[in-house]
Amino acid sequence: MAELRVRSVLVTGANRGIGLGLVRQFLQMPNPPEWVFAACRDPKGQRAQELQNLASRHPNLVITPLDVTDPTSIKAAAARVEEQLGGSGLNLLINNAAIAKMSTLDGETLENMIQVYTTNTAGPLLLGQAFLPLLKKAAQGSPGSELSCSKAAIVNMSSSGGSIEEVYVWDQGQVVSYRCSKAALNMLTKCQSLGYREHGVLCIALHPGWVKTDMGAVFLLLPLQTVEESVQGMLKVLSSLSEKDTGTFLSWEGKVVPW
């Protein structure tokens, strides 16, 4: 497979699950990024202990405080990353942070809808806006005009649960607020792909599979992938993306997921 080569990457929700798995894989690459920014809400808290352990062994790993629901926090994180990069751009923004509220259609609430949508959809929108200058700078500093994840890209972690055609595993979990937020995230990805193409930024929605994480484990009847399997598959997909793929919705195996 073609190796994904990036000088810098930022992963949100990086203290556990898929986010932590992505950070681990980037650090283990034969040619790891010069900078891996691992963003999470409480970098010094107990839930970020594994991330802290990694940072103690990898000087290229920078743990960055970030609350994706707080515009002030997002702007502060962008400023920190810009300072650390010292004049170069950010190649890859992976919007992985997400939440889910287990509820039925009848039991869904306004509070759930707003909280989940704010984290899962509005967060990636605001992060795209805040980091666009750094993504543009990376694109401008990369050779060639073809879009790719090695040049500059936004990867929005979506879910086949947000596919309107599939409405995957409805019987195992209705999770209406989560499904709606991911369907909206897919539209955001399409909008970003149209708006940011002229700046040389590729945008993709990616379904990581149903993974053995705190969130994924609620679907106990499903055959779940391990974090390592999912992350390795996604990085393989990212390494192969080109101009034709921007604005699409793909799975961790590189298959097209219906909108």
Strand order of the largest sheet: 3-2-1-4-5-6-7
Query: What would you call the quaternary organization?
Result: single chain
Q: Total number of β-strand segments?
A: 7
Based on Cα principal axes, name the global outline. Answer: globular
**What proportion strand?**
5-15%
Run of helices and strands: EHEHEHEHEHEHE
Give a short overview.
The chain is an alpha/beta fold and 259 residues long. It has helices at residues 17-28, 49-57, 71-85, 110-140, 176-196, 227-240; strands at residues 8-12, 35-40, 61-65, 92-95, 153-157, 202-207, 249-251. It is 39% helix and 13% strand.
Descriptive notes:
The chain has 259 residues and is an alpha/beta fold. Helices cover 39% and strands 13% of the residues. The chain has a 7-stranded parallel β-sheet with strand order 3-2-1-4-5-6-7, with helices on both faces. The radius of gyration is 17 Å and the shape is globular.
What's the topology here?
Elements lengths: L7 E5 L4 H12 L6 E6 L8 H9 L3 E5 L5 H15 L6 E4 L14 H31 L12 E5 L18 H21 L5 E6 L19 H14 L8 E3 L8
Parallel strand pairs: 1-2, 1-4, 2-3, 4-5, 5-6, 6-7
Helix pairs in contact: 1-6, 3-4, 4-5
